[in-house]
Write a structure and sequence with these properties.
456 residues, alpha+beta, two-stranded parallel ribbon, 18 strands, 17% strand, binds heme C
Length: 456
């Protein structure tokens, strides 16, 4: 415990009467990345559960709802079932039986393992029965008696490169190969996008960032010289019935946590809700649209609210090793390389879903805007208004804890990058000047930049 306090400036080890060591939060804690929601103990003390902690300032009632919601998030769901087993409504098609099947320990998924979703975009003119059978996701699992939609194989291609100092590196690019399609061959021109499950921290805070702040990022970038031109993607928000700025998902395809969770329930697990009422394929009916055999929607309002309470209530881990000279140097380099233009450090939240989320000074390191990241990262699956090469700047808080929680640090939307440096080396398009600056850095500077990102 004492060792874990050291190197975490927000904490100090104190000796209590009786010889117990106690790891206490110091005043520096108030400036944690999630404001007052920031976990009170050093992240190392939570082990693999570092992303699963409730916001530190939740009240008692919210804590209870958080605990209930956590159960719904981690437990396996079952098929809709007249005996009333819960949580029910899984399938007929699904990618995992539980949210935590992909968001392992509320953390990052990995290609070739748990936590990959494969989005499908069927080309215009695809026959209706094929559209009905495949839906929007190549889900690999299905209830008994239903054919799964299909599987994905990933082949890796080596992409060599060189730093300005002559040192060589090799990146890897995924080639996506669908196989075993359950409802006939996928039409030529079908768009595919492999996306890993992101870590789920501080989402209630990102939900509470005022739309005006995101639009201000767009204006500020447009007024600057240089190629960075972030764009606020507009999406339809089914809960409010109006257009809002997209902010969740790798392509900012949903504008609220409500929408994101209802969409996850429907697309990833086959659970219908009032916002996603359609049941894509019924048991034994191989893609023919028939009347639902279970009462619709499958999700009760109360269950949905508990799932929301959990996602909104997830706090943000404290930073690590922030006071080392290397990390401080890395922070300077981060600004110099224009990383902070897109990975905007700080906001004060507006009104949150819980009072605990409102008016918090947070440091997520994202502008929540879409950017053209170049052909190297592009997929063949435009989502909403986002084109193939456009991706939303992901928040960087917690990225350095993914190894502790998930045992890997596979980054970017499809998990191709093996660590922070590879993720940077894939930055192209609007971020190309940043990548070029990193190519010119000395090995020590690159290590400092990476150490800073890993401290967030
Ligand atoms: C098949 C694996 C899978 C399952 C199962 C799954 N998710 Fe996800 N989740 C993802 C992926 C992939 C994304 C990124 C989506 C995108 O880019 O469109 C995501 C995104 C999210 C986000 C937005 C995170 C962000 O930073 O923008 C939330 C919230 C979320 N999921 C919650 C849930 C909940 C709640 C469940 C259970 C009902 C669930 N997920 C089930 C894979 C999964
Ligand atoms: C033009 C905007 C932009 C700039 C400038 C930029 N980034 Fe990014 N960054 C992004 C986007 C968008 C992604 C997601 C791309 C993807 O997943 O395909 C990303 C992804 C990342 C990731 C992986 C995050 C994850 O969760 O997987 C890291 C780490 C990162 N950036 C660090 C940096 C650093 C360090 C710099 C400066 C050298 C930088 N970025 C400059 C927009 C930007």
């Amino acid at each position: 415990m004492i060792r874990k306090c050291i190197g975490n400036p927000g904490f100090r080890a104190s000796l209590l009467a009786g010889g117990f060591w106690f790891c206490a939060a110091t005043a520096a804690w108030a400036g944690g990345p999630g404001g007052e929601t920031t976990a009170r103990a050093p992240a190392a003390t939570y082990g693999r559960q570092a992303f699963a902690q409730p916001a530190a300032n939740l009240d008692r009632a919210s804590h209870r709802a958080f605990a209930e919601g956590s159960r719904l998030f981690h437990n396996d769901w079952v098929e809709a079932d007249p005996t009333g087993r819960q949580p029910a409504g899984l399938g007929p098609h699904f990618a995992a039986r539980a949210c935590a099947g992909c968001h392992v320990h509320d953390g990052r998924g990995a290609p070739g393992a748990a936590g990959l979703a494969v989005r499908l975009a069927l080309p215009p003119g695809t026959p209706q029965d094929v559209v009905a059978a495949y839906g929007e996701q190549l889900t690999p699992l299905a209830l008994a008696g239903v054919a799964p939609r299909g599987q994905l194989r990933i082949r890796w291609q080596a992409v060599p490169g060189r730093f300005a100092d002559g040192q060589r590196y090799t990146l890897r690019r995924p080639v996506l190969e669908p196989h075993a399609p359950g409802y006939g061959p996928l039409p030529n021109g079908t768009g595919l996008s492999a996306r890993v499950a992101p870590q789920l921290v501080g989402l209630g805070l990102l939900d509470a960032v005022a739309e005006e702040d995101i639009l201000a990022n767009e204006r500020a970038q447009a007024a600057q010289p240089g190629p960075v031109r972030g764009r606020a993607g507009k999406v339809f928000e089914p809960f409010d019935g109006r257009e809002v700025v997209g902010r969740f998902g790798w392509k900012a395809s949903t504008g609220s946590l409500h929408h994101q969770i209802a969409s996850a329930l429907f697309h990833d697990m086959g659970v219908t809700s009032p916002q996603f009422p359609g049941q894509p394929v019924q048991r034994g009916q191989g893609g023919q649209g028939v009347q639902p055999v279970v009462p619709q929607p499958e999700l009760s309002r109360d269950t949905f609210l508990l799932m929301l309470d959990y996602q909104f209530g997830l706090g943000v881990p404290a930073r690590r090793r922030t006071e080392t000279a290397q990390v401080r140097r890395g922070e300077v380099l981060f600004t110099q390389a224009q990383c902070a233009t897109c990975h905007r450090p700080a906001y004060t939240t507006g009104k949150g879903w819980f009072p605990a989320l409102s008016r918090q000074a947070i440091r997520p390191y994202t502008d929540l805007l879409l950017h053209d990241m170049g052909a190297g990262l592009a997929d063949s699956h435009p989502s909403g208004q986002a084109g193939g090469a456009e991706w939303r700047t992901p928040p960087l808080w917690g990225v350095g804890l993914i190894p502790q929680v998930n045992g890997h640090q596979l980054l970017l939307h499809d998990g191709r990058a093996r660590g922070v440096l590879e993720a940077i080396l894939w930055h192209g398009g609007e971020a190309d000047p940043s990548r070029r600056q990193v190519l010119r850095m000395s090995p020590g500077e690159r290590r400092a930049l990476v150490a800073f990102v890993n401290s967030l």
